[in-house]
Amino acid sequence: MPFVTIQITREGTEPGADSATAEQKAALIHGVSKLLLDVLGKPMESTFVVIDEVELENWGRGGLPVEQFRARQRSRNSE
Amino acid sequence: MPFVTIQITREGTEPGADSATAEQKAALIHGVSKLLLDVLGKPMESTFVVIDEVELENWGRGGLPVEQFRARQRSRNSE
Amino acid sequence: MPFVTIQITREGTEPGADSATAEQKAALIHGVSKLLLDVLGKPMESTFVVIDEVELENWGRGGLPVEQFRARQRSRNSE
Amino acid sequence: MPFVTIQITREGTEPGADSATAEQKAALIHGVSKLLLDVLGKPMESTFVVIDEVELENWGRGGLPVEQFRARQRSRNSE
Amino acid sequence: MPFVTIQITREGTEPGADSATAEQKAALIHGVSKLLLDVLGKPMESTFVVIDEVELENWGRGGLPVEQFRARQRSRNSE
Amino acid sequence: MPFVTIQITREGTEPGADSATAEQKAALIHGVSKLLLDVLGKPMESTFVVIDEVELENWGRGGLPVEQFRARQRSRNSE
Fold first, then answer.
1. D35 pLDDT band (50/70/90 cuts)?
2. Active site residue E65
3. How far apart are CA D71 and CA E37, in angstroms?
4. Strand partners, B49
5. Cβ-nearest to B26 among E7, E54, E65
6. pLDDT at residue F79 greater than cutoff 80
7. To the nearest whole number, what is the mean pLDDT of chain F?
8. pLDDT tens for residues A33-74?
9. Which residues are within 8 A (CB) of D18 and not within 5 positions of it... i.e. 6 or more apart?
10. Does residue B7 contact residue B61 with C-beta atoms inside 8 Å?
11. 3-state SS record for A8-38
12. Could you name the active-site residues (chains A, B, C, D, E, F) (predicted)?
């Protein structure tokens, strides 16, 4: 009876979307439940999944809020 | 100094409510703090509780978002 | 389908025990599942509980590891 | 930069193993990172995964420690 | 590659703010990433931080929702 | 009353140590509690910290267990 937590930034990857869509969330839920069945034999019935969407300003990396981190990465890569 | 996290779906169980009410949350906080006092002798003062309400489309079970999971359960039970 | 995480320090409260006993853990699991049934009407079947036991040196409060924090509290109270 | 936590009971599913094997863990890590790439376009490089193995007596369901819960399920199913 | 979760109540500490400001969040992200560099030598690049803001009515202490807990503390202190 | 969780791999950074030392853990606890005092004015007394040490084979990045990820990074950097 696994419990999976998926933390992602709240932002869209499709035109007009400002967060993961319901279809994308359903695909994550199905995919990770299937993975636990395939790898560990856990019945899909007994796997719980929670998707935790985190505001961009609440997510940090490299000592910076994520948008500043990404801007710095892009600027480095374009040097 | 226990720390308890209660993750529930954001939905109402009372007429007109679309989430747990403040009274229900207070009852959860009191009940679980009392439980830790009764079972492990932890002073209520030192127990922290966080209630994490999760949107229905962000909660999965059986490989499905929870509303589809429930619909499938109901349909099976009515067969 | 709630998910409850109970984080406690790994230490005994009964003679000879250096952690919560299996009976105490079972009482926590039962108690919190019953609470969610009573307060929110959640079927006990669908509640998951995880007890996370944390080593004393890995738990901090008041800016100190918990054993030093407690020693300071005792010393203050006996003043 | 997603962060995924997979909580499973500490128990073996292969002969002689008393927990998930290193190969099974590697398969979970790869599988869920690939899923986030496929569904949300997240680069595998930026996905973190933590597998949290929980002792059987620390995991509860249906108001019971998981081994008692399973025994009850088996007994019900064999009626 | 540490992962840090900072859970705080959603409330402002500056005039007119009803939550931590973007500047305060950036200071938390920078400060904790720097701490892991200083204490454990972890490169800041590889530290992730998530700030989880919890509604006041979802946070409990002393068996009470946090605002009632604080009111009780103030009333005790003024005795 | 903030709650901070610091997840790190279980491995030593000092000679002869196979995990963070008690002194390093105390420094993390003090440092992050002080940070919350400095940035948000939270009294150190009311901040809880939990350090969660994760086995290397249970931590993944880039779709690989962390030791394989690091080996690949080193091999890329030395090209």
1. very high
2. no
3. 48
4. B4, E60
5. E65
6. no
7. 95
8. 999 999 999 999 999 999 999 999 999 999 999 999 999 999
9. D10, D11, D12
10. no
11. EECCCCCCCCCCCCHHHHHHHHHHHHHHHHH
12. 2
Give the residue from D33, D27, D35 showing the smallest Cα distance to D47: D33
Cβ–Cβ gap D59/C50 under 8 Å: yes
Query: Three-state DSSP class for D19?
Result: coil
Which whole number is the average pLDDT over D2-31? Answer: 94
Best mutation site among C49, C52, C53, C54 for testing chain D: the one with the most D CBs within 10 Å? C49
pLDDT of residue D72 exceeding 90: yes
Interface residue F73 vs chain D (CB under 8 A): no
Check CB contact under 8 Å for F2 and E7.
yes
**Which pLDDT belongs to residue C29?**
98
Minimal CA separation from F46 to chain B, in Å: 10
D1 touches chain A (CB under 8 A): yes
Instruction: State the Cα–Cα distance between residues F17 and C10, nearest whole angstrom.
Output: 22
The conformation of residue E44, written as its DSSP 8-state character, comes to G
Which listed CATH number (3.40.50.10190, 3.30.450.40, 3.30.429.10, 3.90.1480.10) goes with A3-77?
A: 3.30.429.10
Q: Which two tokens stand for residue C34?
A: 């019953």
Q: What is the pLDDT of residues C29-75, one digit of tens each?
A: 999 999 999 999 999 999 999 999 999 999 999 999 999 999 999 99
pLDDT in the model for residue A17: 87
pLDDT band at residue F15 under the 50/70/90 scheme = confident
List the single best residue of C58, C66, C72 to mutate versus F (max F Cβ within 10 A).
C58
List chain E residues with CB under 8 Å of B52. 54, 58
Q: Do A40 and D20 touch (CB under 8 A)?
A: yes
At residue E66, what is the residue type?
V
What is d(CA D53, CA B18) in angstroms, rounded to the nearest whole number? 35
Buried b (16+ CB within 10 A) or exposed e, F46-77: bbbbbbbbbeebbbbbbbbbbebbeeeeeeee
Partner A contacted by D28 (CB < 8 A): yes
Q: What is the ipTM of this complex?
A: 0.95
Residue F61 carries which DSSP code? E
